[in-house]
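seq as requested:
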Amino acid sequence: MTAMRAPSSELPIALDKVSFIARGNPIVSDLSLIVAAGAPTVLIGPNGAGKTTLLRLLMGLIRPSRGSLSRGGRVGAAPERCAIMFQRPAMLRRSAAGNIRYALAAAGVPRAERSARCAELLALVGLSDFAGAPAKRLSGGEQQRLALARALAKDPAVLLLDEPTASLDPAATKTIEDMIRDIAARGIKVVMSTHDLGEARRLAGDIMLLHRGRVIETANASDFFTAPRTDEAKKFVAGELLI
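struct tokens:
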């Protein structure tokens, strides 16, 4: 694939005192943060901390109830080259190649270019031999790789991943992690959530710890794990339950 670089129109993504309220309940509150180009940003925190909601805000799938979100300095701008992969991506009732061709068509790729791009994406995620296989019959790890290829069909500058290795075995997890490293090396900004602190150590350039809908601590990954500043971060790194 052609190397991809985040355009100024997409990054940085800045949240200024953003809250999201659902049915009267605050899911995230007063988030102020910046997502900039560089190594992967990894979101960690206990269940219900607000990680998925933050990813959905970054993708533009939901709008802030309060506060503002800007892209490249433009407040309220819609995402142009941003893609998301959910924890349990749905597979279309098509072949693996058919799933990717559908994503390419949705991304506006000219019909004449789709076959070559489809083959390229299948090769990138190691699924060339499964091009004609029904997507729903692929293993869990294979489906995650296919979902990753579909997300890349948009030629994104920013790729958002919600628990991309959840429920995968160690071998499948390593495969996905290797692909994330390759994607980041191409200049695509990766923002991902995980419950696996080992995975966060392996992949993160920087860490954001969320708890009760707030960003508790943001730091370079090595600094976060060797010298966490807040009590919540110290407890989380030590494996203690945050309540």
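The helical segments are 51-59, 96-106, 111-124, 140-152, 170-185, 197-203, 221-226, 231-237.
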